[in-house]
Amino acid sequence: MKILVLSDTHIPITGKKIPHRILKEIKNCDLCIHAGDFIEYPVFEKISSCVKTVGVCGNMDSQEIRQKLPLKTILKVENVSIGIIHGKGVSDKLISFVDKEFEKDKDNIDVFIFGHSHNPLIKTIKNKLYFNPGSAMDKIFAAYNSYGILEITGNDIKPVIVKWDHLEET
């Protein structure tokens, strides 16, 4: 299964629509996971109209998103359990935040997906993958835009960060 992983799209603050490159990538994916900060619910609806989408709300999301999407969730893909949350606080403490939020389920989770920092991260700690796709739209805290791809086959997980500049399209 090929999964597009997004976070911190911040639409309409950082742009009026989902970049063409993301919409093109969606067509090659079986699932999209969005780790929050859509800002407006129509962004979730647009992504969902292209591919099955699982999302959580972030700290900047509208009240409508907060009412319709959870703060965190756990998803099973093939033989892999994925914990999804937006994040909170400073970048160097995000993994601690994620661990605390999923404390009771941590032993059963293989991958933790989160956002918030806008900086992509692929890190394995004690056989757990921590995956932050960065932000496909907002470079306020990062040198480039990015999104993630997770390819899952059975128990095998292949994480990739795709770096790009969405301004190339405008």
Would you identify the CATH H-level superfamily? Metallo-dependent phosphatases
Helix content: 10-25%
Strand content: 25-35%
How confident is the prediction overall: mean pLDDT? Answer: 93
Task: Give the structural class.
Answer: alpha/beta
Quantity of strands, as a count: 10
**What is the overall silhouette?**
globular
- CATH class reads Alpha Beta
Extract low-pLDDT stretches. none
Please tell me the total number of domains: 1
Straight-line N-to-C gap: 31 Å
Order of helices and strands: EHEHEHEEHEEEEE
The major β-sheet equals: 5 strands, mixed
Query: What is CATH's topology name?
Result: Purple Acid Phosphatase, chain A, domain 2
CATH architecture: 4-Layer Sandwich
Estimated radius of gyration: 15 Å
Major sheet: order of its strands? 3-2-1-9-10
Helical stretch tally: 4
Task: Name its key features.
about 170 residues; Purple Acid Phosphatase, chain A, domain 2
Task: Please provide a written account of the structure.
- The chain is globular.
- The chain has four helices and ten strands, in the order βαβαβαββαβββββ.
- Helix content is 18%, strand content 32%.
- The chain has a five-stranded mixed beta sheet with strand order 3-2-1-9-10, with helices on one face.
- It starts with a strand and ends in a 6-residue tail after the last strand.
- The chain has a single domain, classed as Purple Acid Phosphatase, chain A, domain 2.
- The chain is of the alpha/beta class.
